[in-house]
Design goal:
Length: 528
Amino acid sequence: MADLSASSDTYSVDSEVMKQFELKSNMSNLHIGITTNDVVIKRIFRALLEPIILFGEGNYERRERLKKLLLSKYDEHFRGKEVELAVSSSAEANNFFEVLRMFNIDMSNLFSKKGRFADFTPFQYDNSETGDRELFYTEGDDSVKHFRTSLAHYAWSRNVKRKMLLHKFRASCDQYEHKDEVENYGNFLTENLSLAFAQLAATRPLTMAKFSPNARYLASSSYNGEISVFDCNDSKYKQVVRLASDSSEMVHCFDWNYNSSHVCYDRTHPTSIADNDLLLVSGGSGGSLTLWKPFSKIKDEEFEMRQHTSRCHESRVNRVVFHPCNNLVASSSADETVVLFDLEKLSELYVQEGHSHSVYGLAINGDGNLIASGDAHGVLLVFDLRTGRHIFQQVVHNADVTGVSFHPLLSHIFATSSSDNSVKIFDLRKFRPITSLLTHTKVVSDLQFEPVYGRFLATSSFDTHVKIWDTSVYKCRKVLTNDDTRVMGVHVSPDATAIVSAGYDRTWRLFKPNSEYKDDSSLYRLLN
């Protein structure tokens, strides 16, 4: 009897250990769907009728307690059961399921068995609450048809070039060697990247700062309605151009032509782009787009630049991006639309609808066939420009989607930033996030993959920091401080030799490595 008792005790201990191990394993994956905002976490506890705060509990402990609570409630109400049957038979299960939907908590990555919880993930759109919401398409004219046809040929040719480059790269370097190369470059940034220069650029807070595609100039926009262009070849970064429109609109965003991906597709170096070929488009607070040619001829030594202004939106323009073909500009706005503007005809091509809230983040992939946009309620839409149909539609964040960035080589990989303090990495082939980064303690204002190689991801935040993450395991490699001011945006130079941040204190800051990196990677040899 003693032996039987001992064996039963051992069995109970082992089963308890296995339960704890499974719980910790599931908790490590559940971070994808849970916000880091402590106010929202307290609301979730209140909705679940659980204690909001325990004595001596901090933000981290409260979030861990929420993880355990969600897992235990799942085990209680849904483990091994059909979701529809469990929800209809229990009021507690129905309340738990509604809380998951309300706060967009995704647990499908943990419980993905067929016919179980994954089939009812709250990240899918639920149109049952609004019976008048339906999918519709607007018929376009012949110009839209011609655009889609020509774009299909353009995107196909770029896709072929990119895949040929990747095939050559994979033939000369396996995934482990590439991971080591990314690791080595990350170590280099950790040891050498630091503040190199800071410049007071405007009389009001900055909204953006970006390098020109030939890496010779740096432009910054401001709430004062002006765009200033500085010479990067000058040791003091002297201002060479000031762009000011006649309207009183604040400049919320801008972008240069010649998308950095042209280095991969056309095998041309950024410095080969002439100053006279540079174009710049800006978006204003009144809904207008302004096209600039900053380095046209200057008359009488005054800053009189050639410009064209067109009102494309009914409200504030939040983001503008050039299409890789350089003939189109896409813009997102608070009027819930995305507009494609034809630069050759200087007219609106068509309006892309689909969002029901203000649209913020906007990006076009390197092939030029996909456009991604995120709105104020965390909804992300990915449209195929060749057909006009959306191929991805999910609630991916618990707050505004502030930025989107596509990987320069892997066109199916893209990242999103949000006001919920997180960054998520997506794989379009899986239609779900592959990882989530708890990047900052406040709003993540912007992000960008390193041009050409995509070895790191730069993120900026209102918590005064710019962070650098490697793209092999998405580990934070460097934290760059910005003198206790919120960072409005971040941008990586086309040659990846510098990073600039735009500060709310009217100053842009330039970060550079202290020494030159001797790049002898397989990808570098293919492109140079």
